[in-house]
């Protein structure tokens, strides 16, 4: 089994990545006019926030100090800057494209985490959250495809 420091590090990476998603969804909700899309982004931000808190509790239960912020990674930072740029242009397709890219980052982080030898209770949470990230990604992609079809 992977040692606790590695497990805590992995969970903290998921926390940081999820914080990026939570902030990205919140920012999207604040900057779109469509009421249904706004509600979707708010729900997703809240759900991701709940996932963050669940991961933080897991880290504490393992004797670690949970991450409390988003990542400082340049790549993720650029993704959310791209999202903000898309939002300012009020282009729903662009906003959804950038949101999907952010969800791609989350999926990658979760897929990497499930490759690690995790304790059973931690693995169950990570797999469940991976499934949630996949649903978020798929729903954003579906909304983006609908928005594309509408503007064409």
Automatic annotation (TrEMBL):
<protein>
    <submittedName>
        <fullName>PA2169 family four-helix-bundle protein</fullName>
    </submittedName>
</protein>
<dbReference type="InterPro" id="IPR011971">
    <property type="entry name" value="CHP02284"/>
</dbReference>
<dbReference type="InterPro" id="IPR012347">
    <property type="entry name" value="Ferritin-like"/>
</dbReference>
<dbReference type="InterPro" id="IPR009078">
    <property type="entry name" value="Ferritin-like_SF"/>
</dbReference>
<feature type="domain" description="DUF2383">
    <location>
        <begin position="6"/>
        <end position="115"/>
    </location>
</feature>
<dbReference type="Pfam" id="PF09537">
    <property type="entry name" value="DUF2383"/>
</dbReference>
<dbReference type="InterPro" id="IPR016920">
    <property type="entry name" value="UCP029477"/>
</dbReference>
<dbReference type="InterPro" id="IPR019052">
    <property type="entry name" value="DUF2383"/>
</dbReference>
